[in-house]
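Try this one yourself first.
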């Protein structure tokens, strides 16, 4: 495993971290304990020593904590989790959430604690007025929190304001070859590193959309490039992030031990500043092809779910994007599956009542009701609606 040094703490962190949010289960909020254990054990065997979870990932902290409680695994990894700051209405809430997180994770300290999904300086100002600075200082003094940071999904302009709003140890940003000018972006990556902070990267493959869901022409281009050690679109995407020396670690939401093996193999060889000019030029051409097909920038994070009207929001957007990346018919088939068309209670885009409940949770700032209307127009023109009525079970 390749390791990089956290400039603030001096910790030696694996360049590949395990993002636990996407660990699969029987349903959203029910990570399968056996799968969780298998993935975590394989990650540790491969030298991964950083695990990321959050209070708001349903069932996730408990699953991770239970897996780590076996065989002394807790002492072999840095554990990161996140404060649901928007739910903190009083000063006492900081302790209430934190104590529950320690219990869920079966631990007495958190190595990397983040304010979850800060999108504007006003959010930091609100918790600062509630006394979070004193609270952090107390937790760090007693060793319950080792490093403090924030995850960010706001604008490029707001990012440096947040960097300077507090003496952070680290930050976590969305970064990949399709997002160089989005959210923190490359400018933000450099700004954080220049301040001596560790920079952790999330969404290096945009929830798989730069990996197995890459538009077919872009995937073909990468395959034809025939570069040594870059076998798959995921290899290219991860290597591109690791090529930046400012990146301390990237989180990958690995969903199986086999995926851990594949990504760990790339992490071993993807050192900073090792991609060639030809490889970087190939990536630029992939970005152009990706942007043509990428109509809705949904990463499939599920933060917007559940929709009170039962719509599978990320599923609809994945189908919509697939219809531009892989052809209308392929997208339509995916839409049928996502919207449970062949069941007695289909959950179609046309069921959307435009309530907007979902949109305020979206870290990608997608206008979900408006884009759901686009999905409806693409997949449910008049003739299709007629067919849908005919094939619906009675
Ligand atoms: S706007 Fe539409 S998709 Fe979003 S929560 Fe309301 S009904 Fe569901
Ligand atoms: S619409 Fe937004 S919140 Fe919902 S899954 Fe996609 S990126 Fe996540």
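Now uncover the answer:
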């Amino acid at each position: 495993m390749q390791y990089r040094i956290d400039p603030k703490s001096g910790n030696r962190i694996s360049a590949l971290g395990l993002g636990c949010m996407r660990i699969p289960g029987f349903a959203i909020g029910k990570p399968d304990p056996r799968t969780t254990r298998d993935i975590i054990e394989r990650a540790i065997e491969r030298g991964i020593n950083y695990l990321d979870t959050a209070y708001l990932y349903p069932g996730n902290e408990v699953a991770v904590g239970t897996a780590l409680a076996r065989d002394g695994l807790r002492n072999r990894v840095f554990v990161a989790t996140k404060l649901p700051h928007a739910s903190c209405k009083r000063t006492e809430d900081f302790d209430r959430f934190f104590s529950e997180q320690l219990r869920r994770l079966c631990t007495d300290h958190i190595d990397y604690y983040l304010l979850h999904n800060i999108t504007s300086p006003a959010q930091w100002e609100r918790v600062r007025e509630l006394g979070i600075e004193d609270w952090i200082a107390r937790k760090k003094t007693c060793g319950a929190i080792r490093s403090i940071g924030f995850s960010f999904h706001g604008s490029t302009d707001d990012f440096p304001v947040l960097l300077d709003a507090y003496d952070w140890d680290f930050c976590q940003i969305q970064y990949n070859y399709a997002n160089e000018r989005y959210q923190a972006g490359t400018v933000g990556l450099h700004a954080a590193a220049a301040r001596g902070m560790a920079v952790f990267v999330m969404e290096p493959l945009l929830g798989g959309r730069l990996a197995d869901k890459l538009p077919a022409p872009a995937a073909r281009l990468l395959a034809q490039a025939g570069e040594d050690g870059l076998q798959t679109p995921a290899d290219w995407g991860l290597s591109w992030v690791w090529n930046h020396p400012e990146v301390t670690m990237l989180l990958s939401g690995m969903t199986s031990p086999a995926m851990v093996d594949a990504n760990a193999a790339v992490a071993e060889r993807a050192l900073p500043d090792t991609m060639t000019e030809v490889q970087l030029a190939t990536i630029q051409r992939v970005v152009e092809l990706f942007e043509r097909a990428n109509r809705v920038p949904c990463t499939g994070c599920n933060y917007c779910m559940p929709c009170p009207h039962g719509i599978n929001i990320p599923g609809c957007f994945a189908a919509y994007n697939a219809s531009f990346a892989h052809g209308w018919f392929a997208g339509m088939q995916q839409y049928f599956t996502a919207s449970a068309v062949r069941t007695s209670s289909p959950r179609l885009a046309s069921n959307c009542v435009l309530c907007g409940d979902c949109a305020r949770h979206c870290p990608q700032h997608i206008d979900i009701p408006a884009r759901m209307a686009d999905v409806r127009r693409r997949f449910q023109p008049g003739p299709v609606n007629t067919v849908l009525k005919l094939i619906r079970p009675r």
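Discussion: The CA atoms of residues 84 and 116 lie 6 Å apart. Residues 313-391 form one domain.
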